[in-house]
Design goal:
Layout (H helix, E strand, L loop, with lengths): L3 E7 L3 H12 L4 E5 L2 E2 L2 E2 L3 H6 L1 H19 L15 H25 L3 E11 L5 E7 L5 E10 L3 E3 L12 E2 L13 E5 L3 H12 L3 E5 L11 H14 L2 E3 L2 E9 L2 E8 L2 E7 L1 E4 L3 E3 L32 E3 L10 H15 L13 E3 L4 E6 L2 H6 L4 E7 L4 H5 L6 E7 L5 E8 L2 H13 L4 H6 L9 H9 L15
Parallel strand pairs: 1-2, 1-7, 2-5, 7-18, 9-16, 10-11, 10-16, 11-12
Antiparallel strand pairs: 3-4, 5-6, 6-7, 8-17, 13-14, 14-15, 19-20, 20-23, 21-22, 22-23
The chain binds flavin-adenine dinucleotide and 1,4-dihydronicotinamide adenine dinucleotide (NAI).
Flavin-adenine dinucleotide binds next to helix 1, strand 2, helix 2, helix 3 and strand 5.
Length: 482
């Protein structure tokens, strides 16, 4: 191990490891410090690869296949015997995907000449030209490493709430909810956000009765209202019992059961569960990252304060990903990592924060990019919208997926596309078309003039754009035609 580098990255999640690799590609000597130990082994890949995006998607896929095999095949004339699921095998599959990917990242760092330092990194002094980072290895003595540049990429951890303290067995956070050894008969979830909907769906599909408590009066308030309304309808029909405007006031474990008390408009209610998941958001993780006098400024919410290029208040020190403002998403962290390194290298890289996509991997998926109708109106746009129901899309129907809708939001004055929103099969991929169109400052007319292949779910994007001017073909148009 060297004691001096051009660039030291603290945190080996998607933000940190991408920054480290890009730094090496640009010719810097790079160390990436990561302290994570996953299932007994040091691991790169952060929350995303170990306990986030990837394991949750592995379980979403297994549970979807199970449910589809059980309930959807008969429509196709396919009969099966009893359909069963081996939970241990399902978890094993998830773990082997995680292991393959995290080992792959280790190989990428090695192949690019990045030193992976296994242990804790602490920024001791970031004020001078030579930054000082304390490295505390998982085993052995600590040392000081100097660097010209430092990127802080320490990510986030689940928020804990005093009314439902996690115990790792009955009351768990998202990490615990990826590891249930058997399907809980009754599962409570606090928070109808992204994790609540995804992991709630996993265990519901496998047979649990799932109740999701949401403190806010509105379901999925961050999404376009037409989309959240449609999503609520579909998810409730699947059996998720989503209770908005419900505040959890206590959770107590008694005789192997979790008793949850809630306040619903002043009335106290009680429910009993086998397991309870607490997923009420995440917070930046800066403990042990910043020494007291290192000079870094934090925001009121405990995030590391940065500008649009992820520069902190200290020259040569950048911060990225879940540690800083903006959505806590892996792809946002990755792009910020690359931008930070390229800025250090003197290039003019910039993340376009207006086109960061959100995807909730329920079935159907819920996804969007850009402004919702409500946000665009609030920002003073004269808004025009168009939408198209998947119930009239041939491909979706042929796949047995004829539910949901796709919606476009545009500036009525200029016709410029401002947002694309979908609750549909493959919504996460569909809205990438909106992202690309917005990057190229496309208009609704551009989308109308393009030829979309038939039969595809993407045709609904075309029809939504046509419907913005009352021109959709496969829907009765009440809007004035252009
Ligand atoms: P992290 O991935 O959190 O990585 C930071 C790393 O830094 C950690 O491994 C940590 O051990 C290490 N570290 C912290 N402090 C120190 C220190 N002082 N010294 C050394 N190492 C340190 N996002 C999506 O975009 N799509 C999804 O589908 C998705 N699904 C998710 C599902 C779940 C259940 C969860 C919990 C999250 C999900 N996310 C998803 C969010 C995503 O995981 C995060 O946004 C992303 O991992 C953030 O990347 P990061 O590099 O900023 O931080
Ligand atoms: P979240 O912010 O998505 O949702 C938390 C929900 O809990 C909110 O609706 C909030 O109103 C509610 N809430 C907060 N306190 C509450 C309380 N005391 N009682 C009841 N409800 C309460 O946070 P979540 O689901 O924990 O996910 C954390 C982050 O992880 C997300 O912000 C997201 O960025 C990331 N993530 C992304 C995924 C994806 O991109 N597909 C998947 C999973 C996580």
């Amino acid at each position: 191990m060297k004691n001096s580098y051009d660039l030291v990255v603290i945190g080996g999640g998607p933000g940190g490891y991408e920054a480290a690799i890009r730094g090496a590609q640009l010719g810097f000597s790079v160390a990436c410090i990561e302290k994570r130990v996953h299932k007994g082994e040091p691991a790169l890949g952060g929350t995303c690869l170990n306990v986030g995006c990837i394991p949750s998607k592995a379980l979403l896929d297994s549970s979807h296949r199970f449910e589809a095999t059980k309930h959807e095949l008969t429509d196709h004339g396919i009969t099966t015997g009893d359909v069963n699921i081996d939970i241990a095998k399902m978890l094993e599959r998830k773990d082997s995907i995680v292991k393959g990917l995290t080992q792959g990242v280790a190989g990428l760092l090695k192949g690019n000449g990045v030193d992976w330092l296994q242990g804790w990194g602490t920024l001791v002094d970031g004020k001078g030209a030579e930054k000082q980072v304390k490295f505390t290895p998982l085993e052995g003595d600590e040392s000081i490493i100097t660097a010209k540049y430092v990127i802080l990429a320490a990510g986030s951890v689940p928020i804990e709430i005093p009314v439902a303290k996690t115990d790792g067995e009955y009351i768990v956070d998202s990490t615990g909810a990826l590891e249930f050894a058997e399907v809980p008969k009754r599962l409570g979830v606090i928070g109808a956000g992204v994790i609540g909907l995804e992991l709630g769906s996993v265990w519901r599909r496998l047979g649990a009765e799932v109740v999701i408590y949401e403190a806010m009066p509105e379901f999925l308030a961050v999404a376009d209202k037409d989309i959240s309304k449609e999503a609520a309808k579909l998810l409730k029909k699947q059996g998720l019992d989503i209770r908005v405007d419900t505040k959890v006031t206590g959770a107590e474990v008694k005789d192997g059961q979790v008793i949850v008390t809630t306040d619903v408009k002043g009335e106290t209610q009680t429910d009993t569960f086998d397991k309870l998941i607490v997923c009420v958001g995440r917070r930046a993780y800066s403990e042990k990252l910043l020494a007291e006098n290192c000079g870094i400024e934090l925001t009121e919410r405990g995030l590391v304060a940065v500008d649009d290029q992820c520069k902190t208040n200290l020259d040569g020190v950048y911060a990225i990903g879940d540690l800083v403002r903006g959505p806590m998403l892996a792809h946002k962290a990755m792009e910020e990592g690359m931008m930070a390194v390229e800025r250090i290298h003197g290039e003019k890289a910039q993340v376009n924060y207006d086109t960061i996509i959100s995807v909730i991997y329920t079935h159907p998926e819920i996804a969007w990019v850009g402004l919702s109708e409500q946000a665009a109106t609030e920002q003073g746009y004269e808004v025009k919208t168009g939408s198209f129901s998947l119930s009239a899309n041939g491909r979706a129907l042929a796949q047995g997926e004829g539910v949901g809708l796709i919606k476009v939001v545009a500036d009525a004055k200029t016709d410029r596309l401002l947002g694309m929103h979908a609750v549909s099969v493959g919504a996460g991929d569909i809205v990438h078309q909106g992202m690309i169109a917005m990057e190229f400052v496309s208009s609704i007319e551009d989308l109308q003039l393009m030829t979309f292949a038939h039969p595809t779910v993407s045709e609904a994007v075309h029809e939504a754009a046509l419907s913005a001017d009352g021109r959709a073909i496969h829907a009765i148009q009440r809007k004035k035609r252009k």
